[in-house]
Amino acid sequence: MIRVNRSVLVLVALVLAAPLAQAADVQLRLMPGSKLWLTGTSTIHEYSSTASKLDVLFGHEGAAWNAALPRGEAIEKLIQQHGVTSIELIVAVKGLHSGKDGLDKNMYKALLAEKHPEIRFAMTGYDVHGGSKSGELAIDAKGKLSIAGVEKDQAIAATAVREGDAVRLRGRVPLKMTQFKIKPPTMMMGTLRTSDDVTIQFDLLIGAGDAPLAGTQAKGAGR
Predict the structure, then answer these.
(1) How far apart are CA 213 and CA 56, in angstroms?
(2) Residue 154, class by beta-carbon neighbours within 10 Å (0-12 exposed, 13-18 middle, 19+ buried)?
């Protein structure tokens, strides 16, 4: 009869369970330096409005997390293998600032900020293409975008590049205000009119930690 020391069995079990425990504890999270802003044009000049705070909630399959890899590579692999199950991005309307009080006031009014204080995007799925050990991933995501109380299906094209222990996700989304029943704001007795076309741009740094961050202060507009 072969006898096995019980303490040895316990030690082996702990070693084997360690990666699973790490996978369960790790959470994707938004890192400092992430930013989102929108740009548009008017009859007088171009404008840019930056989100002063971003809240992004991530969901992923714990079994798809490879704890043996460096975190940046593990996040990249998680994306490639469709292990990210959900992304919800929340922007406070009154957290958008252009540096011009009059423009901000008219924008908040047009976006019905009092009744609908948040802009939300909830991802429902994505496809990913390309990628290598240090290459770029092309991502075609889809989801629901809600602005001023109107929800629409929205496709988003983005790129993901590994940066150390994180992955940088960049993209731009052209929209028309009237798609969401928003009347383009006017100022100066109607002599300044904003275009119906706006573009939402984002530059998000995604990391991983033991607990998610509640939100990330956005710095600058990447102009």
Answers:
(1) 9
(2) buried
pTM over 0.85: no
Give the whole-angstrom CA distance, residue 185 versus residue 93.
Answer: 15
Rounded Cα distance, 142 and 127, in Å:
9
What is the domain partition of the chain in residue ranges?
6-217
Q: Which distant-in-sequence residues (6+ apart) come within 8 Å of 126 by Cβ?
A: 82, 84, 139, 140, 141, 142
DSSP 177: G
Cα 118 to Cα 94: distance, rounded to the nearest angstrom: 8
Q: Are strands 46-51 and 166-176 parallel, antiparallel or unpaired?
A: unpaired
Under CATH, which number does the domain 6-217 receive? 2.40.128.110
In this predicted model, what pLDDT tens digit does every residue of 199-219 receive, in sequence order?
999 999 999 986 544 344 443
Q: Which two tokens stand for residue 191?
A: 């002599």
77: left (phi over 0), alpha (psi -120 to 50) or beta: alpha
* Dihedral class, residue 220 (left if φ above 0, else alpha if ψ from -120 to 50, else beta): left
